[in-house]
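STRUCTURE:
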C-alpha cells in the first residue's frame, strides 16, 4: 500500500513540476544559466522526494530479490549435488552391472556344466542298467537253450537206447553212441 502511495506521489510531483513550467514560463530576460539552475534544483528536489518515498520499498524489494536469488542459488546447488550423487550412484551400478553380468554368465556356464555331467552320468547309468538287463536276458536265454538242448539230447539218448534195446547192440555201436553223446555234451558247454 505504501509502495502505491509513494508511486502516486512521485508521479504527481513530476507532473506538478512539468505543469509549473508551463504555467509560469520563464521570462525572456532570464539567462540560460538561471534556467539550468532551476532545472537542476527541480531535479534534485525530484530525486530527494523519490529517495524519501521510494527508498524503503526499493530496499525491501532488492533485499527480497537478493534473498530469492540466494535461495535459488542454494536450491540449484543442492539439485546439482543430488544430481551428481545420483550420477555417481548410476555409474557405480553400471560398473557393478558388468561384474554382475560376468558372474551371472559364469554361474550359467557352471550350472550348464553340472547339468551336462548329470545328464551324461544318468545316461551312462541307464546304459549300464540296459546292458545288465540285456546280458541277464541273454544269459537266461542261453540257459534256457542249454536246458532245451539237454532235454533234446536226453530225448535222443532215450530214443537211441530204445533202439539199442530193441536191436542188439555191439561194442562198436556202444562206443559210437558214447562218443556221440560226449560230443554233444561238449558242444553244450
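SEQUENCE:
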Amino acid at each position: 500500500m505504501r509502495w502505491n502511495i509513494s508511486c502516486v506521489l512521485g508521479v504527481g510531483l513530476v507532473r506538478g513540476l512539468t505543469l509549473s513550467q508551463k504555467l509560469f514560463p520563464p521570462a525572456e530576460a532570464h539567462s540560460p544559466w538561471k534556467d539550468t539552475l532551476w532545472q537542476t534544483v527541480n531535479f534534485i528536489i525530484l530525486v530527494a522526494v523519490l529517495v524519501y518515498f521510494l527508498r524503503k520499498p526499493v530496499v525491501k524489494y532488492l533485499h527480497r530479490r537478493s534473498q530469492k536469488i540466494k535461495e535459488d542459488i542454494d536450491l540449484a546447488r543442492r539439485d546439482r549435488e543430488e544430481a551428481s550423487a545420483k550420477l555417481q550412484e548410476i555409474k557405480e551400478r553400471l560398473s557393478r552391472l558388468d561384474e554382475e553380468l560376468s558372474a551371472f554368465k559364469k554361474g550359467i556356464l557352471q550350472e550348464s556344466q553340472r547339468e551336462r555331467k548329470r545328464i551324461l552320468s544318468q545316461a551312462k547309468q541307464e546304459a549300464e542298467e540296459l546292458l545288465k538287463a540285456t546280458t541277464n536276458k541273454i544269459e537266461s536265454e542261453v540257459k534256457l537253450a542249454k536246458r532245451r538242448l539237454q532235454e533234446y539230447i536226453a530225448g535222443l539218448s532215450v530214443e537211441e537206447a530204445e533202439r539199442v534195446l530193441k536191436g542188439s547192440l555191439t561194442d562198436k555201436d556202444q562206443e559210437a553212441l558214447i562218443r556221440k553223446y560226449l560230443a554233444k555234451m561238449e558242444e553244450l558247454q
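REMARK: The mean pLDDT is 81.
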